[in-house]
Every structure is written in structure tokens, then in C-alpha cells.
Amino acid sequence: MNGQFQIAMHILTLLDAQPGELLSSEYIASSININPALVRKEISNLRKYGLIASKEGKAGGYTMGLSPEKILLSDVYKAVKVQPALGQAKNKPNPACPVGKQISAHLDFLADEVDTSIINKLKTITLANFSAKFEY
Fold it and tell me: Which helix (H) or strand (E) covers residue 54, if one does?
């Protein structure tokens, strides 16, 4: 798994910690300690899913798109998921091998089960629940 979920959660938690404020990508990036361009890329994706709203212009920035009580962590996971939870091999196994010809199907099934378990767990947690763990 890549770090997109962690970045998205950091962004959303930071926005939730400062309700009503418009935060710049530079400010958010400084909190995460990454390049603002990476933040803008992730914000663009989160905006597409309605999790973040933005205001353009000099006094613009980013804020929550939905109330934290309405955002399930499974929604965040689905918004940023780009690969199976168990990863994916770049090579194709040898179809002449008894293991090689079956391994992909069995691993795909296992990955689907793991992904479903992750989503089911994350469905039980809202952003508000997660944010409540922080001391401000």
C-alpha cells in the first residue's frame, strides 16, 4: 500500500482541526512535511469525491467539503485506493507451472477478502471519531 491514505487522512484531520478556516496547500504541506504539489494532487482527488471544498483566489484555500460526522474512513480509503491492499506483482507467472498458472487467481481472491475487511472496519469510524483522538 502506498502513503496516499495517510496523506489524505492528515489533510482531512488538519482541515477538521481548523473548522471554517481556509488552509493553503503550502500550510498543509508544511504539516505533512511534503511538497505542496503532492498535497494539491491529493486535494484534487479528495475534492472529486466531495470530501474537500476549495475557494480560488488570493484569499482562497481548502476546507471540509462535508461534515466530519458524515465522512467515513472507508470513503477516504476508496477515494485514494489505487492498488490492491496486498500489492500487485509486475511480472506474469509462468502459465506452464502448476503454481504459476493458479497463483494470480488465488492471490486476487485473498486480496479482495483483505480489502473487504479493511473497508468494513473503516466503515465503523468517522473522521469526527478519528479527529477526537487529537489534543489541540
Answer: strand 52-55
